Hints:
The chain is an alpha/beta fold. The protein has five helices and seven strands. Strands 3-2-1-4-5-7-6 form a seven-stranded mixed beta sheet, covered by helices on one side. Helix 1 runs parallel beside helix 2. It binds S-adenosylmethionine. The site of S-adenosylmethionine has 15 residues, from helix 2.
Amino acid sequence: xxxLESAIRRLEAQLACLNxxxxxxxxxxxxxxxxxxxxxxxxxxxxTLMPTRRIIVFEREPMAHPDSMPPPEDLIxxxxxxxxxxxxxxxxxxxxxxxxxxGSGDKAATAALASWLAEAVKPLCKTHTLIVSDxxxxxxxxxxLPLPQNVLEGRYQMQQMI
Length: 162
Ligand SMILES: C[S@@+](CC[C@H](N)C(=O)[O-])C[C@H]1O[C@@H](n2cnc3c(N)ncnc32)[C@H](O)[C@@H]1O
């Protein structure tokens, strides 16, 4: 598969999983946490899908497209390792949805961050919190959900706190 094809599949997977997530959390109160703003594409999609939901974004280098920049009160700037512990202070309640898209070309660093995040996000979760991620996040107390049709196993992950 070419890199172009791979990038397209990744975006299709994100789109399908986030669309599915919006339906799954419709009756679950709480904010959405976006871990990794990047260009702001998924942030923009989430706010389009769920315009009344608060979306709090965690990002160390906010450089999104200007149209997709969260308001300052919903942007927690800094490395996850500094901002996620104690983030309940900002979110004020556990999340309905955590979308974590933080993978980089550095496989070892990405795996180490995933393993750290799997433990660190637990205080931000409650029963039924949905976690959608680009990396496998081995969060204790969750059950893996089936992926939308046409999303290959391993490309994205959806899990829910029991
Ligand atoms: C793949 S991009 C996210 C793309 C985004 N979902 C979009 O649709 O545009 C990953 C983002 O995660 C951020 N990130 C990665 N590791 C981080 C860390 N340890 N702390 C804070 N932000 C981090 C990067 O700076 C980058 O902006």
